[in-house]
Amino acid sequence: MSDISCAVCSEPYDAWGVNHGDMLRWEAILFKKGAGCPSCQGIVPNMEPLSELAGIADARETRSLERRLLSDIDEDGDPDLIARLFEDGDNRNRPKWEPPPEEVLWQCTGCKVKVVVDAENDYPDGPLQVPIENRPLAWSGGDKVHASCGSLYAYPQVCETENTATAKAPFTVEDQPYCDACCQTCADCDSVIFSRSELEAGDPYASGSSFMPTGKYHRTDALCIDCYEQLCPECGASPTEECTCTHDGEE
Questions:
Q1: 65 domain residue, yes or no
Q2: Of 80, 131, 206, 242, whose CB is crowded by the most CB atoms within 10 A?
Q3: Does residue 18 lie in a domain region?
Q4: CB 238 within 8 A of CB 227
């Protein structure tokens, strides 16, 4: 497959490589729309019209250069836009060469951390337009970094083994998304409870309320209100654990 030349600076790029990791996805999309390339970043040398830079003297040469630049442009390109670039010698119609705005998939209601598309590590491997779940994701912002190894890490302290960002929130409380630094499942059932006490409403029967059994200290031992009320009031044994206590009224 032959090269595709940048519509701004004429730098040649391997047509196959553009779609297979020679540049970031957002760069490849803008490149095929005539915005520029990683080399020139959309800046026209000397800020002169493209026709002057190429030494074009008449319209026939302009069309000839246009055809060369458009060689091997596939369905992801925009030939109409590139054609307008040549008609509009000063390039007012070409899109700006700049990274895309942050693409947020969801944001935790508790700590405000966001899951976003990791644009700076998103290299295409075929089609440029792919579903979000097929693109690399990353954590962004928030009061605390994502939970790791049972602990919470305040920014900017980031643990190397932090859990992977996912396209969907791992937990919801009253239809609101939460990360698993803020929520977890009850140790004895599948109910969702808060991992951070500051998120609780103060009502023990409110959604997400959690309780630590007597003698337990790790956050993964926390229980929901239903399971907590089934514990032995003396030894704290759950219904599935052996209780050796002698309760009033029992033989």
A1: yes
A2: 206
A3: yes
A4: yes
